[in-house]
Design the sequence.
């Protein structure tokens, strides 16, 4: 099958959906001829025109609210927040409006919108352009939260997100944009709420999200060389979360590492740990539930420091050994 | 009422060429809003309404006047002080009272309360607990109208205090740049919760802010419903004909405190008395209608009775309604 | 000792600190003659004048940034966010500026400010005025997060927060404002990062935050009647967190319930659970680590629904029995 | 350069009554900024600088001119495009280059990079990666000056794009209401990242927005350093004498792309050429200085050499500096 990059997969998904459904449009800063900060929307304005690929002023509060207002009246906006860090300025519309509107109105509204959020560190953009704040969103009932770790998932999950009638926070990782993998040409959907077992194994379960899925897979290869059989689970969507897949794997291996890039303290991994710790899988545990998360520090600029701030393949490898008392 | 104030209205009633039926309906709606609010105050004092609520007594002319030029397809976004807007846009008072009493027959099945009443069917996109939040939402609703060529216009209500929020600024700019069919309608009642707009800005009127966005704007007497109708009709027409947004600042006054716990220390009782005595929008409209022979004192009394009855019925409906069952806690979160 | 309410304790702490240090001032909406939405600043403008009790326009982005800017240049602002839900509009200044500035500038700035955040449900204010979003803040390195559960703690912790040279998010609970307890008249500090064992016990550990501390204590009384001896730990500050106190208690009892009012999914309790699950206390556990948190729903208006949305005394009682297989 | 442009400058140089020493220093600073940026471009191409950076070539007159009336005690807040502001405010180029190379000798010990250079000692409160974030921070810094009677003034730099953020609106209003000693200095270089300000607003000039806050404002030629000095001096004086904030819109142009990855499809090469050819702020200032006999061509060449040398030294200093040790990852988070 042909290979395309994560960023091409996102673009293709949007474009195919826009061809299918004329209510879908995209809005954001510099998404026209500039193609967006990461080139994800490159060329889309040529096909769809400035009406459906709407370049906005630098006004995150208005454009996010505009997305919500248009969604509740019949459109299906895709909002690109240039760097996910800037979502701080759009939080009222996401948290107090989009997420709660249906509930507050007793079920009489729906807000079908997707917010695309390029996130994560690794590009030298420093503290205000490198955060991974998806955990915030998972804490807000009414939002769905998606975090694809490869091009194939990105395309299928985005299609499902656009078709979903709820506000969906779609976390894209900057360092994955150029990573290629096999992606079918036709449009397909990956349902929200279904985890993917990226690698089967019986000794240790790693539940990893976003960029960490790829690192976990690398670590698993290295561990395989040592005769350790690692299972890697990628939840793909944090809300809804495929609890069953996670708990099943834990029961099978009895040893769990949860790996995420976001700041360790109160990152989404803590929810996964808590789920396991309160479940009947608890009795199957042969070791503490270990976590790897980002340092409790802002993301630094210097490349070596930046690398040290988030889990690397070797850290995952080490933690797995620790789980096996080796 | 001063002769000057009367003069404007008498002139306008001819100019606007309104039907007796419309004028009477508006008179009725203003009374209905007043009675609605007075009743809520009672229900609150009786402990039947909990939480908070924001009464709009004294501001009936802006609500009813601004909604008059709107069709049912046109939409409004409202505020925490939204009961009047809702009623003026055709939202059913039975379901409103039921909502305030937290009943399952309420607009939000008892989940929203005063600050979240919405009625999509009549184009009421909802009250909002966040100051200025209705402006970006309204902008988006106007975008839908433009993109889908639906022809409807959106009117956003907000207060003077809201104009100091970033959302106000960003929304007016965006709506202007995209030439959206929207009317930004500011009810300047002189105060936020307690902050006097004179102290919270350094400008003579909020209308001057339109120029920052290339949006035409004007300041009007918000307690003269005819002036409200005139300004809003023009603005709605502009929007309807793809001539973009308008900003209207309507001066008015809220008679009650900000919410039920307000001791009103930030303003004088004299100021309140003055507004109530000589600038009651209901009295002013009534006088004009009487002087122009549109209604009689008897008609007015009848409208009053009818409104009282309608609210009584609404309260009865609400009180006899069921509370939501506990399992509704977890419904309506996702589609 | 005299008893005063939580809200009086907060006011007294601010006033005493303002008398001591003229760099301390307070800013916020309606905090003058109105006394703030909850009356916490009542009368303060009379003593300190409008220069130091600064009424602001309704401009959460500007006033939060103004607080940060004045803090980095030598003042010690206390910012009152009228309802903690409105912090969404101030997030850039808190998260991207205040929290990160010292780090981004390589240690060359400090931001001594306190943000006071009335939070929580129970007053019938519905979805946009009842949230408990403290978990967001704990996820942001550079912020400290405090959550007092009674008047005594509130006074002492606030004094420490005001003296602290870092940005401190101070979560006050609306339903505690009128609750009275013994509070010394003189100014005192409770150091940030020290948990309080609100009740000693040996059978079960409840780690509870904010309003839930009080409910846990009530449940503990009921359980005592059944011969179950509950230890109740109140971390008081979420960041820094007194991990030692928590782990010690867990090792002692072997059974843990974590109770918080915020939405269960990814609430701060998940961090506490994760800490325990990855620690050496894991081996002392005799049961799964149970959690009680708020429903994964926006807070509803109807009082019965609202009550059902967050843990009640009886829920805590039940969960403890469950922990003991009873 | 057109005769018209020259005319203004020649008139101003007499009116402003500046010392030769100051004029030469400003000429030097402008050259230094240009050389600094040109060198960064090279270092970036050589892969020695990673991440992103935003060059201000073409905007040297606004940075240097606006900082001229400021004392060391006065403060600035800057932006993502902040190198020029920093240099003009007296920030050391050695430590700046070191920071860009991620070295421990950099202003931020290598933790901040281009977007976070700050130097409290010379009143540089920092660049900022968030558009418009400097405005509320500057407002707070101005409040400190007022409350502690420190007498300093704050000058906030920001771009045209930033004026569509809510933070712009809220800050100008707050600063006006509190009569703070602050100058809001907008570098209107016609574009945000790619968005043309003509399309992102519906107004003739950003200066009109001052009226929304009761703040005096003017639009100036930002590539004429003398005009910048004149306007800023007046604004700083107003602020210094408790007459409140001013909004200055200085028209200018960035020669380079927004950041290093910009193909500049949103504007024409002709437009760029035109600005470079006939509106280079350095050339314009040089011409005025030559015509008025302040410096000679030789002097200018010497300033150029000196600037090149200073930057070379800075690069050497930076390249020979150490990287931060890994344990600094966890320092400087809390006091
Ligand atoms: C973002 C936000 N900030 C503060 C509040 C608290 N609050 C509710 S209404 C209000 C005053 C609003 O004033 P105005 O816009 O003039 O409307 P009015 O109440 O006068 O109708 C305030 C401060 C809020 N609900 N939302
Ligand atoms: C809140 C926020 N939104 C968007 C961005 C991305 N961004 C960085 S610079 C920029 C353009 C800023 O334009 P302007 O204010 O005119 O400054 P200029 O780059 O022209 O100097 C944008 C959109 C950001 N950094 N912060
Ligand atoms: Mg008002
Ligand atoms: Mg610009």
Sequence:
């Amino acid at each position: 099958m042909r290979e395309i990059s994560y960023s091409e997969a996102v673009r293709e998904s949007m474009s195919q959906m826009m061809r299918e459904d004329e209510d879908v449009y995209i809005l954001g800063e510099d998404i026209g001829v500039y193609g967006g900060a990461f080139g994800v929307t490159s060329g889309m304005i040529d096909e769809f025109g400035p009406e459906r690929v709407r370049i906005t002023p630098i006004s995150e509060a208005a454009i996010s609210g505009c997305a919500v207002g248009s969604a509740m009246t019949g459109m299906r906006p895709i909002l690109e927040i240039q760097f996910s860090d800037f979502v701080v300025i759009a939080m009222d519309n996401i948290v107090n409006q989009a997420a709660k509107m249906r509930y507050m109105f007793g079920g009489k509204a729906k807000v079908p919108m997707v917010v695309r959020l390029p996130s994560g560190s690794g590009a030298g953009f420093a503290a205000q352009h490198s955060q991974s704040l998806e955990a915030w969103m998972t804490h807000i009932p009414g939002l769905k939260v998606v975090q694809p770790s490869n091009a194939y998932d990105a395309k299928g999950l985005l299609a499902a997100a656009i078709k979903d009638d709820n506000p969906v926070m779609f976390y894209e990782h900057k360092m994955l944009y150029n990573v290629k993998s096999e992606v079918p040409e036709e449009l397909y959907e990956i349902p929200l709420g279904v985890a993917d077992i990226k690698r089967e194994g019986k000794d240790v379960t790693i539940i990893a999200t976003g960029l960490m899925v790829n690192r976990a897979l690398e670590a698993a290869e290295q561990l395989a060389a040592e005769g350790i059989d690692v299972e890697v689970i990628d939840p793909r969507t944090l809300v809804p979360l495929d609890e069953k897949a996670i708990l099943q794997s834990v029961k099978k291996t009895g040893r769990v590492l949860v790996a995420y890039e976001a700041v360790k303290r109160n990152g989404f991994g803590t929810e996964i740990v808590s789920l396991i710790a309160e479940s009947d899988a608890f009795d199957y545990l042969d070791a503490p539930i270990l976590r790897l998360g980002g340092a409790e520090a802002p993301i630094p600029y210097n490349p070596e420091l930046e690398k040290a701030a988030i889990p690397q393949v070797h850290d995952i490898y080490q933690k797995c050994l620790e789980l096996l008392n080796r | 009422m001063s002769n000057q104030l009367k003069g404007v209205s008498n002139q306008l009633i001819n100019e606007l060429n309104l039907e007796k039926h419309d004028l009477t309906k508006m008179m009725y709606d203003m009374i209905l809003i007043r009675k609605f609010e007075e009743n809520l105050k009672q229900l609150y004092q009786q402990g039947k309404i909990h939480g908070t609520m924001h009464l709009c007594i004294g501001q009936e002319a802006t609500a009813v006047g601004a909604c008059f030029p709107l069709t049912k397809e046109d939409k409004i976004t409202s505020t925490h002080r939204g009961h009047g807007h809702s009623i003026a846009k055709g939202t059913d008072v039975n379901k409103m009272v039921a909502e305030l009493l937290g009943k399952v027959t309420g607009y939000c099945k008892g989940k929203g309360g005063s600050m979240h009443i919405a009625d999509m069917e009549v184009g009421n996109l909802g009250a909002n607990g966040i100051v200025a939040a209705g402006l970006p939402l309204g902008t988006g609703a106007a975008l839908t109208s433009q993109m889908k060529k639906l022809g409807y216009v959106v009117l956003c209500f907000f207060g003077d205090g809201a104009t100091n929020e970033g959302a106000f600024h960003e929304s007016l700019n965006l709506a202007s740049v995209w030439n959206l069919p929207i009317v930004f309608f500011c009810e300047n009642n002189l105060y936020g919760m307690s902050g006097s707009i004179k102290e919270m800005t350094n400008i003579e009127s909020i209308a001057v802010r339109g120029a920052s966005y290339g949006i035409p704007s004007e300041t009007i007497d918000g307690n003269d419903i005819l002036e409200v109708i005139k300004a809003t009709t023009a603005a709605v027409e502009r929007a309807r004909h793809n001539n973009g947004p308008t900003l209207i600042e309507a001066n008015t006054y809220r008679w009650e405190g900000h919410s039920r716990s307000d001791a009103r220390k930030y303003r004088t009782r004299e100021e309140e008395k003055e507004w109530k005595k000589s600038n009651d929008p209901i009295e002013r409209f009534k006088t004009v209608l009487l002087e122009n022979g549109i209604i009689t004192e008897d008609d007015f009394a009848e409208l009053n009775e009818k409104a009282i009855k309608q609210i009584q019925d609404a309260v009865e409906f609400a009180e006899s309604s069921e509370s939501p069952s506990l399992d509704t806690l977890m419904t309506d979160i996702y589609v």
